[in-house]
Design brief:
17% strand; 51% helix; binds erythose-4-phosphate; eight-stranded parallel β-barrel; alpha/beta; 218 residues; 11 helices
């Protein structure tokens, strides 16, 4: 499973990329607004830090304008992926962009049928939003299960399932168990993944016992 980081904060991306565990980055207009920075500059900087795909979202709503914005954003760096919303116009733009060799992430997916359309439109990634489905009392992970089953039924689909709107470490585990290809995870949750109280406790005991031996390894 690949890990993408879901943020437009360059410092956080740099810190996490140093672990070697970051396979890509996703941004969206809300995350860019939160960063308070120029969109193009932020995407350029992220693409310099991370080798993998970096999603940059269009702001237009009509397919022709989405394609124009997508082509412009794709010029920023080779590893830019264009994010388009799951609308008819977004699907048309997805088809046009992928046919011209641009990688596309179809975002704001909330159902298996939407994911089926995105795969037929040639999407590189489909982003089902787990947390936002849970927020309205539905089961986000059930949608990941359904998409996995549908995509596995049709080996000619090569759209990758990018589990998005991840809010908890449990979401990451469940997405992995459901066979999502990628999870895009907020930096805070990435950091929480490594933590377990028994790891901290066990390490403290090992270090104290080692110190009592008076030995050194190097
Ligand atoms: C990523 O591509 C999505 O834009 C993001 O995961 C949405 O997360 P949210 O529902 O927490 O805003």
């Amino acid at each position: 499973m690949k890990f993408f980081v879901d943020t437009a904060e360059v410092d956080e991306i740099r810190e996490l990329a140093a672990t070697g565990l970051v396979d890509g980055v996703t941004t969206n207009p809300s995350l860019v607004a939160k960063s308070g920075r120029d969109f193009t500059e932020v995407i350029r900087e992220i693409c310099e830090i991370v080798d993998g795909d970096v999603s940059a979202e269009v702001a237009a709503t009509g397919s022709d304008d989405m394609v124009a914005e997508g082509r412009k954003l794709a010029e920023i760096a080779d590893n830019v992926t264009i994010k388009v919303p799951l609308t008819w116009d977004g699907l048309k733009a997805c088809r046009a962009l992928t046919q011209s060799g641009v990688s596309v992430n179809v975002t704001l997916c909330f159902s298996a049928n939407q994911a089926l359309l995105a795969a037929k439109a040639g999407a590189t990634y489909i982003s089902p939003f787990i947390g936002r489905l849970d927020d309205i009392g539905l089961d986000g992970m059930e949608v990941i299960d359904e998409i996995r089953e549908i995509y596995d039924n049709y080996p000619d689909f090569d759209t990758q399932i990018l589990a998005a709107s991840i809010r908890t470490v449990n979401h990451v585990k469940q997405a992995a168990m459901a066979g999502a290809d990628i999870a895009t995870i907020p930096p805070k949750i990435v950091k929480e993944l490594v933590r377990h109280p028994l790891t901290d406790k066990g390490l403290a005991t090992f270090l104290a016992d080692w110190q009592s031996t008076g030995q050194k390894i190097v």
